[in-house]
Amino acid sequence: MEVRILDARIHEWGLPDYQTAGSAAIDLFACLDTTIEVDPQAPAVLIPSGIALSFDDFSFAGLVLPRSGQGHKRGLVLGNSTGLIDPDYTGEILISTWNRNPPGSDPILIQPGERIAQMIFVPVIRPAFTVVDSFSRSTARAAGGFGSTGA
């Protein structure tokens, strides 16, 4: 995979990498010029990551996820829950940040260079669809869902 560094500070902060031998995802930095405030329950704020990727392989994609400590300790999560980076997208990775804390809470301060999200790479399966009037196989769970099997 090729990575373009769009913000030179990434060289100082650290190139995209896994923080430990067992890390499943790379951390993404907040490439900001100044500290910003993300107010509780306000609309999500897009923050540049300073990088762009070229997958060169359409069999996997990137998922941008919140960092668990940021979400649990500070309430900083993603405005879109999970960000999908399609393998044909080559623009800058943007991080949709949202302050999930209740109104009246303090804003979350995001510093330039702070690790605010992470990206994991996952395989993509793209089946071909065949339109049918009825399925060739049936299961015991043809309908239901949304808790239909009980608590």
UniProtKB/TrEMBL annotation:
Kindly give the Gene3D superfamilies that the UniProt entry links to this protein: 2.70.40.10
What GO molecular functions are on record for this protein? dUTP diphosphatase activity
Q: Do you know which CDD domains this protein is assigned to? A: trimeric_dUTPase
E.C. numbers: 3.6.1.23
Q: Which reaction does it catalyse?
A: dUTP + H2O = dUMP + diphosphate + H(+)
Q: Which UniProt keywords apply?
A: Hydrolase, Nucleotide metabolism
InterPro entries named in the record: dUTPase (IPR008181), dUTPase-like (IPR029054), dUTPase-like_sf (IPR036157), dUTPase_trimeric (IPR033704)
Q: Which Pfam families match?
A: dUTPase
Question: What enzyme class is recorded for this protein?
Answer: hydrolase
Instruction: Give all residue intervals belonging to the dUTPase-like domain.
Output: 12-150
What is stated as this protein's family in its record? Belongs to the dUTPase family.
Q: What is this protein called?
A: dUTP diphosphatase
- What species is this protein from? Paracoccus aerius
Q: What are the top taxonomic ranks of the organism? A: Bacteria, Pseudomonadati, Pseudomonadota, Alphaproteobacteria, Rhodobacterales
